[in-house]
Specification:
Strand content: 15-25%
Structural class: alpha+beta
Mean pLDDT: 95
Shape: globular
Helix content: 25-40%
Radius of gyration: 22 Å
Largest sheet: 7 strands, antiparallel
Distance between the termini: 28 Å
Strand order of the largest sheet: 1-20-19-15-14-9-8
């Protein structure tokens, strides 16, 4: 099959067209995409464009990511793939005993805050692959923070939905809801504290965040308001360059960052589907979606039981979970005509933002950063604009679980950058936001590309399904064909049809390499996504 997609077919509700160019950047916010395009115009490469975009996103879409979040990346440097896990770890004070007796970790507040890793990711990626001075990458974001930016209706809705919940957390209202509400559509929002913070990060190469004035401000705020993170925890942070994990599916490979992230769940589901003969099963049919959903449920059952910080996956490893024979056995549990509700198998006996950029020299970047649940913990460090994430919520409090909370340990993570390869060469950098939607969104996109040859924009526009977090109910988008919904219900699925503009199905961005050079870049209609080319 040619790696160039069908660029004439756009059968779904959105009729948004992809961007075709030699250098592309795509993300969920137009002002951020413009920041990346500026770097291309100034001679920068795909990494420079992606980082300027990522930094700008913390300002113009603070309700979905921030300076105090985590980040992951997959980068094709023109010759090979590189993986980055820049997620942070728990404070050394977070002993299992401290959380004993709790049913779950706290969703908000200091009890959900682990050390943030996003700032370290910016610097590490820039040092390794960038061509422009680190400080230059901050210029668009600094303008948006100091001079303000005009808030869009989408960002307002996401922001306003969080204000009541977040305003009880220390520092939030003063920084992000000074009027007691989110900024209105068309209103200009200015955050001078955020500008000062970004300037310090730019000037010190991130040192201020982990070992300087900003680290002290974070630690002081924790001491004054009940948190446990301190200067020693921040100074101890380190990221890891890792070997990505892969799963062959038809004539492509899906590439993910391994545990502690959920990307392995997408690989497992694809591995199960690859053992099934799906020839002749139509796209968007109830039969096709049923099989994908059942494979995803099986993968989730295993993922939630076994996936954790890789240093703590001692009995069941990622190799056990990705074993092709094991996945073929798991696929045998899929009934072609009936929904089931699986438990984990035995493989071994014993709101987030995404951006992608690609350049004319062949470099492709898949980069994702997040505060997790919107603004994250809701805790904001005074006068800094640093909203701290709530990744600690991803830990288990169950004694003996591989993901049980412990000092200096990474929690299970939901954010995952994606990458597709074909015949050993890069095909597409992509990502899809939205908690547990990310792994299942990767499965849906990969199947549409590999099984049906859809172009990135069509694969993005297609109606999506989402297995709910209880691994039982399934939500589908409002424009899912009625016959498909009826067929899923006939097979026993508990289907909820979501209203239009529901945000639980994520937002995707993609950049696919064309056979003759250049890229086709897609942006998602579900948010303000914009792909730009140069």
């Amino acid at each position: 099959m040619s790696s160039s997609p069908d660029l004439l077919s756009y059968p779904y509700t959105s009729q948004r067209m992809p961007v075709l160019a030699d250098n592309v950047v795509s993300t969920s916010q137009p002002l951020a995409s413009a920041a990346g395009l500026q770097m291309f115009h100034r001679g920068g490469n795909a990494v420079d464009a992606a980082l300027a975009t990522a930094i700008a996103l913390t300002v113009v879409e603070p309700c979905m990511n921030g300076i105090g979040g985590d980040a992951f990346a997959i980068i094709w440097d023109g010759k090979e793939l590189h993986g980055l896990n820049a997620s942070g770890r728990a404070s050394r004070h977070w002993t299992s005993e401290r959380f004993a007796g709790l049913d779950s970790m706290a969703p908000r507040g200091w009890g959900s805050v682990t050390v943030p890793g996003t700032v370290s990711a910016w610097k590490a990626v820039s040092d390794k692959f960038g061509t422009m001075p680190f400080e230059t990458l901050f210029e668009p974001a600094l303008r948006y923070a100091r001079d303000g930016f005009i808030v869009s209706p989408t960002v307002h809705r996401q922001w306003q939905a969080q204000v009541a919940d977040m305003s009880v957390q220390p520092g939030y209202k003063e920084a992000f809801a000074p009027e007691g509400r989110a900024p209105l559509p068309g209103e200009r929002f200015v955050c001078p504290g955020q500008a000062d913070t970004l300037e310090k990060i730019a000037q010190t190469g991130g040192e201020a965040f982990y070992r300087g004035d900003l680290a002290k401000a974070i630690a002081d705020h924790a001491r004054n308001t009940g948190g446990l993170i301190d200067e020693q925890d921040l100074a101890a942070h380190k990221l890891d360059w890792v070997t990505p994990v892969r799963m062959a599916y038809r004539d492509i490979e899906l590439v993910e960052i391994g545990p502690s992230g959920q990307g392995i769940g997408a690989l497992m589901a694809l591995g199960m589907l690859d053992s099934l003969d799906l020839s002749g099963v139509p796209v968007d049919s109830a039969q096709m979606l049923h099989l994908q959903i059942e494979a995803m449920k099986l993968a989730f059952a295993d993922m939630y039981a076994y996936v954790a910080d890789p240093d703590h996956m001692l009995t069941v490893t990622k190799e056990h979970l990705l074993d092709r024979d094991y996945l073929a056995r798991r696929a045998q549990a899929i009934d072609w005509n009936e929904a089931r509700y699986p438990g984990p198998g035995t493989p071994h006996q014993g709101g987030t933002v995404y951006m992608t950029a690609a350049d004319s020299k062949g470099m492709m970047v898949s980069f994702i950063q997040s505060n997790f649940k919107g603004f994250g913990s809701g805790v904001v460090v005074p006068n800094t604009g640093i909203a701290l994430h709530n990744r600690g919520w991803g830990f288990s409090t169950q004694a003996g679980h591989p993901n049980q909370v412990a000092p200096n340990k990474r929690p299970f993570h939901t954010i995952i950058p994606g990458f597709l390869m074909r015949n050993g060469q890069p095909l597409m950098s992509f990502g899809l936001m939205g908690g547990s939607m990310q792994a299942q969104g990767h499965v849906q996109v990969a199947c549409r590309i590999a099984d049906f040859g859809q172009n990135p924009q069509t694969a993005s526009d297609a109606p999506r399904w989402r297995v709910k977090d209880d691994n039982r109910g399934v939500a589908v988008e409002w424009n899912m064909p009625e016959a498909t919904v009826a067929g899923l219900r006939e097979r026993g699925h508990d289907i909820t049809v979501a209203p239009r503009f529901d945000t639980e199905f994520g937002c995707a961005q993609m950049a696919m390499r064309l056979d003759g050079g250049g890229y086709v870049a897609a942006s998602d209609h579900r948010k303000d996504g914009v792909a730009l080319g140069y």
